[in-house]
Amino acid sequence: MKINWKKALGLTAAVAMLMPLAACGSDSGDKGGAATAGTEEVTLSVWAPQEDQAKGDDGSEPWLTQVEANFEKEHPEYKITWKNDVVSEGDAVTKVKTDPSAAADVYMFASDQLGGLMEVQGIGELGTDAEQQLKEQNGDLEIASMTGTDGKYYGVPYTDNTWFMYYDKSTFSEDDVKSLDTMLSKAAVSFPLNDSWYIGGFYDGLQLFGADGTDESAGMVFPKDAGDISKYLVDLAANPNFHNSADNSGLSEMTEGTVKAFFSGSWSAADIKAALGDNMGVAQLPTFTVNGQTKQMKSFAATKAAAYNPNAKNTKAAAQFAAYLGSTESQKLHYELRNIIPTDKSLASLTADDPVAIGQTDTMANTAILQSGLAGMSSWWDPAKAFGDAILNKEVTSDNAQAKTDEWVKQVGKYAE
């Protein structure tokens, strides 16, 4: 649902509700000097990726510059001085943790950093209107990605961050790509088995800190048949039509035509489109079969979002602008300028003819699990990569797959009861 910002944020009464009272205080809108009668001088520091601050190939103004100008039009009650610095979404938590009081008023971040940002009290809770925006614009996974361990909401998503499947339509039909086993029987497929962000996709039933990723006591729970799935992966690695995508080699193989399917995210779209043209196919993840049972591959799902710093000098303006970065209008502009696929469901018609957007959206909705933002996720990465390496190096075999899987599960989590 598209948010009408003039109605939702422009009115004084609605703006007063944007921040929780405990965070805002009765004087939250009184900080800063008055430029003219009824106009408040506000300085907002903003962290955003370099790409969002670069001019377009046609000389158009950067996305961030345009969004800031649009925000000023929506909020004539402010006279804003902008202080923009380059900080990528992936680096936000490190920078905020260094000194939350000196961090930007508004920043963009990856959802798996939420736990770390909350620990240092460097991220502000959404107020009434922003929470409504979050829930109206997004699906369940996106909402869960912004849910803290306290059940409250932090940050407004503007794009998803996950992986899905690219394939050559001249080789595989739409029915073929529903089953990985069928695909492997026909042509070569590349997958990064020793990449810890990907290998978990085979363990159908894996749960990371509860259904919504916020239950630290739940831990990482593996399906009971994880050992059988590991045996499947041993056979997969030995299949001549399976190519491991080491250091993203699968992308090169896909563009060269030596493999006909490749698992990656939206960042690979331009290269694959250049190589395959109209034969580029994109789809949610396929199934595979273990001991006669159909299993569903599921990627880790996260989002990128905008947030405000509760240590900002003007928390009201900061919260308003953070929400505006994820607004319908800003997401639409992001897609038009940089092809950043929106999470806003009301923009579905905008991406209706974009196979990458459709593949990503379908994956988030149907074949993904939430990548938790809790600090405990750090225990996943190294052991998962090591297990993938062990399969590829034939240290894990059909005979010892159960025992090796038991060791891995004991190291990071537990089996489902």
UniProtKB/TrEMBL annotation:
InterPro entries: SBP (IPR006059). Keywords: Signal, Transport. It comes from the Bacteria. GO terms for molecular function: maltose binding. GO terms for biological process: maltodextrin transmembrane transport; maltose transport. Residues 1-22 form the signal peptide. GO terms for cellular component: ATP-binding cassette (ABC) transporter complex, substrate-binding subunit-containing. Pfam families: SBP_bac_8. Belongs to the bacterial solute-binding protein 1 family. This is ABC transporter substrate-binding protein. The lineage of its organism: Bacteria, Bacillati, Actinomycetota, Actinomycetes, Bifidobacteriales.
